[in-house]
Predict the structure.
Amino acid sequence: MCPISKSEGPSSSASGGLRHPLLSPAEIRDVNTRYHDVAAGHYDSKWGIDFGELGGDQVLCKVRKALGPRPGPFARSLEIGSGTGYFTLNLLRAGVIVQATCSDISPGMLAALSANAQRLGLEVRTEMADAERLPFPDESFDLVLGHAVLHHIPDLPRAWSEFARVLRPGGTVLFAGEPSRYGDRLARVPKRAATIAAPLWRRALRAGKAPPAEGGAPDAALESVVDIHAFAPGELLRQARGAGFVDVRVIGEELLANWFGWTNRTLEATADPAEVPWAWKWYAYRGYLALQQLDRRLLESRLPAAIFYNLMVAARKRA
Ligand SMILES: C[S@@+](CC[C@H](N)C(=O)[O-])C[C@H]1O[C@@H](n2cnc3c(N)ncnc32)[C@H](O)[C@@H]1O
């Protein structure tokens, strides 16, 4: 997707446990629903979610990293926390999945997804569901997938056992775009540097300050409440194995691309979007894609998964 990959750079929970011990799991789920219902209206434009060639390539590239060069086709897929359909709709278009079910705790997100699917002429079943209580029969899917969702779920062991329950024996599970705890800490450096440099940058580009946030934008204070985990690779490995999955792989992706992306995103957030020159946007966009290639070709196979910004986990249910 993007110009910038999307796990929102959450709050790291040093222990891997809930970051908001004062909120009950039910309250965290409720805040997630309300926050994402409001976010749904401008989610695709905020995160540059695309269902054309670029979005399709981005999603396919992630899925290939985790599942190999020719993933699928999977006859029946279930997406958890599908949002507006970034993964499922792009994978349907690519022929990687055939019959898609999308679930999310937020009805607003599912409504946006249905509108996207209709516009693209794609058929998708949607179901409002909490990942910890899936309203589907045992062994009813060949693929359970998700992008940027595990870090919102209060009881992960319970959710993982639900993923195992609804998958058929030998089925595949894949979660991508999960925030890495150390990767997130490393990414704070460029974010801080960009915050300091922002006034100078705006002056150089002759861009005015950002206007106050529009009404209808999700409450920024809730953002730190919905992002409740950041992961070390070993935690994702243990969660998957703990639910009985085999062939578990955890992969780290995006390092330089994310530093570059977050620097630019932080700078841009301080400016009036109408006054950021087109040439800058082009540079930020092309630069992100170029660094993504560099990460992919040079760094991802050589450096430990823990230092990358995003983690993905893929595994198989025992046949
Ligand atoms: C960061 S968004 C990602 C959306 C989409 N997967 C994407 O990549 O664009 C996280 C999504 O997870 C959903 N979510 C949060 N908590 C959930 C839960 N407990 N069960 C199911 N979905 C949940 C949110 O409503 C939201 O749509």
Summary: The radius of gyration is 19 Å. The beta strands are 74-80, 97-104, 124-128, 141-147, 167-179, 245-253, 310-317. The pocket of S-adenosylmethionine is lined by residues 29, 32, 36, 80-83, 86, 104-106, 109, 130-131, 147-149, 152-153, 177 (CB under 6 Å).
